[in-house]
Amino acid sequence: MGPLEGVKVLDLTRAVAGPVCAFFLTLMGAEVVKVEHPKYGDDTRHFACQRNGVSGQFVALNRGRKGITIDMTKPEGQELIRKMVPQFDVLVENFQPGTLKKWGIDYEVLKEINPRLIMCCMSGFGQYGSMSQLPGYDIVGQAMSGIMETNGWPDGPPTKVGCLIGDQSTGMTGLAGVLAALYSREKTGKGQLIDISMQDVLIQYYDIPTYTLLGYKGGRTGNRLPTIAPFDTYPTKDGRWAIIACANNNLFEKLCSVMGKPELAQDERFATNPKRVENVEAMTEAISSWSKRFTMNELSGLLVKNGIPTAPIMNIEEVLNLPHVKEREMLIELEDSTMGKVQMVGSSIKMMGTPLNPYGSAPKLGEHNEEVFGRYLGLGKDEVSELKAKEII
Amino acid sequence: MGPLEGVKVLDLTRAVAGPVCAFFLTLMGAEVVKVEHPKYGDDTRHFACQRNGVSGQFVALNRGRKGITIDMTKPEGQELIRKMVPQFDVLVENFQPGTLKKWGIDYEVLKEINPRLIMCCMSGFGQYGSMSQLPGYDIVGQAMSGIMETNGWPDGPPTKVGCLIGDQSTGMTGLAGVLAALYSREKTGKGQLIDISMQDVLIQYYDIPTYTLLGYKGGRTGNRLPTIAPFDTYPTKDGRWAIIACANNNLFEKLCSVMGKPELAQDERFATNPKRVENVEAMTEAISSWSKRFTMNELSGLLVKNGIPTAPIMNIEEVLNLPHVKEREMLIELEDSTMGKVQMVGSSIKMMGTPLNPYGSAPKLGEHNEEVFGRYLGLGKDEVSELKAKEII
Predict the structure, then answer these.
(1) Which of A3, A8, A28 is nearest to A116 (CA)?
(2) Intervals of CATH 3.30.1540.10 along chain B
(3) How far is A313 from chain B (nearest CA, A)?
(4) Residues of chain B positioned with their CB less than 8 A from the CB of A192
(5) pTM of the prediction?
(6) Which residues of A touch B17 (CB under 8 A)?
(7) Are residues B51 and A213, on separate chains, in Cβ contact within 8 Å?
(8) Does domain A8-205+327-389 fall into CATH 3.40.309.10?
(9) Is B8-205+325-389 CATH 3.40.50.10540?
(10) CATH of domain B231-312
């Protein structure tokens, strides 16, 4: 039994950011009804990891949902949404701001129909503010939050983060908003509107004090941090790179001992973290000239034994083959109704009392039309067929 | 009034990941009591953005809390924690797994004292699994989740993401766990243990189907995605880089129209997203030879007018100077009791019914010892002084 057993979610999300939020609501045991356009469905169906006519990203993000179709550009489609809203606790969406208002299904309208409704709107730039109408995508958010400017190497170009940091973090932030509102509603009896902007979220991820206090505008520092040292990659004898990270004096002293140079920890250039940051070149030279005397395995062994945070850099295959990752069920096999057997990521939220269930199958386009319109609106098979013939669903 | 008004949180977190979780619990209106070591305090106090003896990162992450000191390595300190636990709803921590057990304050012990306690443990590799004992830091999580391997350029080295993606996302995931458990407790009356691993969280951020379905091991693709095209940076006449992102045929058709080449959208090499991914070089050449005829401003104007997602790449100063960012209160000025006036990031979770408050001041080390030990344990001034003299607090 998940923590959200009994909660009903109307899911108008598409692409990635919104579905990440709805994904965890689903895994938490809510009944999540996903609404797609009757003709195209969600854009992610057409992403490039195709099998049996659907993409892996769609299945990854949308498993466990009930899937229905509604053409929300048509008045009859909009009316279907308004009729369903009284029976739902939560509505999540990530259309461009203004879209739902145009369709007559924005919060101002829906709260009159259901004052207990919790509505979470996720977008590139938020529901208000002079840039709110701009379309947003992960890479747009990264570019306009300072993240791309600070990702990469000093002598290279601004670089997109190698995963969908904007989408994923926006979805997780929306999730926190929905969950907090569900708790709050238990106390107040009232729903509310939540406004999540990808740009806001990525600004929150940015280390703002480096700018407001140091005036540092975020040039790229490769694998270093401007605030902690040592916290970098160091060469090994076999041509690999090892992470070594010490965020306090105690760990740095241990490292100096392991290096056989305990006196370095007392050296005034390296005695405190701010000093080590100031003298990072000299410190890096000292560590590198030591680290490259060992292979990755030898170095790892030495550092782990002494409790110093370290890691080799792994590709995803190496990661997913770690027994640890299997023990934590982070790579699971599930049976999807379209794809068949497929390997997907498990749940990163592990709640021991109310476990999450990541094993659902993703809906085919409109798969649950009869079930959902029957159960929530009392429509019969013929009425559903008629809506379909009229291309409303 | 925040959504968590009345909730009490005992905050044993340090460094960044744990405090991100506790930060939002604080902004949501919970009373959050942060416990620090009496001598050193949190490592983030010593990060390199110093003013008046404290770092900006500490203030950024820990404002709004009550601050107390307890030496949890001492039996008397451990007893203080056990005595306080019955009065708290939530305990959050991010020590290395096993540490709290050693101190006699792990979940097995604490749930006997308070069965309603929600305890969220955040760590590098989680509370169970063969690698759970390894120390974790942001860069370690990035290295051992495939993220570093996929971040950067094909001809360059694996690259750390330019912000603390591991810490931030682990904190946000822990936050979601705590909030779901609070909601669930309203229904069941029971608390529970939540186990968040940074490695799990970053695997969740990774686009796993690219590996499980395409067998793609995550070599670095610079500013491209392996699943969507166009979704990249393109050159402008004035030597800058513009983002152009189209995740569906409709947007790509619009782009081709703006380029004055509507026939490209029908070209069989580019007619669907999987086709565009397959023929990305030819498509990139077509877009780039067009984009470089315009300055960044001209190009932005053209694309925005036609509803095509685009962006210039901004540094953090340009971002924070946008009127939009000020309108959304993402850069705020607050009065910190140690730093004085300082600019900090606002709240990326905007809840219209129960607004979050990001204006708190960070505690000095042990600032609220008398108040908290008095209120929660009924200790008088003299007793608090005695604990201090014995270096227990």
Answers:
(1) A8
(2) 231-312
(3) 4
(4) 351-354
(5) 0.96
(6) none
(7) yes
(8) no
(9) yes
(10) 3.30.1540.10
Instruction: Show the tokens assigned to A293.
Output: 């005397």
Q: Which residue type does A23 have? A: F
CA pair distance A201, A366, nearest whole angstrom: 32
Option in B146, B153, B184 nearest A316 (CB): B146
Buried b / exposed e along A213-249 (16+ C-beta atoms within 10 A): bbebebebbbbbbbbbbbbbbbbbeeebbbbbbbbbb
CA–CA gap between residue B100 and residue B168 (Å, rounded): 23
Nearest CB partner across the interface for B243, out of A130, A140, A220: A140
Return per-residue pLDDT of chain A as tens, 393 residues: 899 999 999 999 999 999 999 999 999 999 999 999 999 999 999 887 899 999 999 999 999 999 999 999 999 999 999 999 999 999 999 999 999 999 999 999 999 999 999 999 999 999 999 999 998 889 999 999 999 999 999 999 999 999 999 999 999 999 999 999 999 999 999 999 999 999 999 999 999 999 999 899 878 989 998 888 999 999 999 999 999 999 889 999 999 999 999 999 999 999 998 899 999 999 999 999 999 999 999 999 999 999 999 999 999 999 999 999 999 999 999 999 999 999 999 999 999 999 999 999 999 999 999 999 999 999 999 999 999 999 999
**Measured between beta carbons, which residues in chain A are less than 8 angstroms from residue B207?**
57, 163-164
A and B: number of Cβ contacts within 8 A:
507
The predicted complex's ipTM stands at: 0.96
Q: Is B11 a residue of the active site?
A: no
